[in-house]
Amino acid sequence: MWKRRRIFACFWHEKYFVLTKEGILKYHKANGTKYSKGNWDLKKANRIHEVFLGAERHPYRLALVCDEDNLLFGYDDPDTREYWYNQFSKFIDF
């Protein structure tokens, strides 16, 4: 999964994500690293949107809208995006 940076938002970075049973999404620099680089409580998200931008890198995207932060994730195929959409949706009250 790809994550768009807050600073220099034109850049995408591939990260390794772990979603806990409590709805905390943690990201690591690489698979197997011990400490996460950051995390978000998905229960604090207000909405989730599926986006397709065919001409862009990682055209299948998910946008999470939160009170404090907006997150954008990119995927290279629709099945992976759909998987993460379903996982995220378990913790978001629409």
Question: Could you walk me through the main structural features you see in this protein, from its secondary elements to its overall organization?
Answer:
The chain has 94 residues and is mostly beta strands. The protein has one domain: Pleckstrin-homology domain (PH domain)/Phosphotyrosine-binding domain (PTB) (PH-domain like), CATH 2.30.29.30. It is built from 1 helix and 8 strands. The strands form 2 sheets. The protein has a 5-stranded antiparallel sheet with strand order 2-1-8-7-6, covered by helices on one side. It is globular.
Q: What strand line-up does the widest sheet have?
A: 2-1-8-7-6
CATH architecture tag? Roll
Let me know the number of strands: 8
Number of helices: 1
What's the order of the H and E elements? EEEEEEEEH
- End-to-end span in angstroms? 23 Å
What is the helical fraction, as a range of percent?
10-25%
What is the count of structural domains? 1
According to CATH, what is the class? Answer: Mainly Beta
Structural class: mainly beta
CATH superfamily: Pleckstrin-homology domain (PH domain)/Phosphotyrosine-binding domain (PTB)
Largest sheet: 5 strands, antiparallel
Shape: globular
Looking at how many chains there are and whether they match, the oligomeric state comes to single chain
Overall mean pLDDT: 89
Radius of gyration computed on alpha carbons: 13 Å
CATH topology: PH-domain like
Spans with pLDDT under 50 lasting ≥5 residues? none
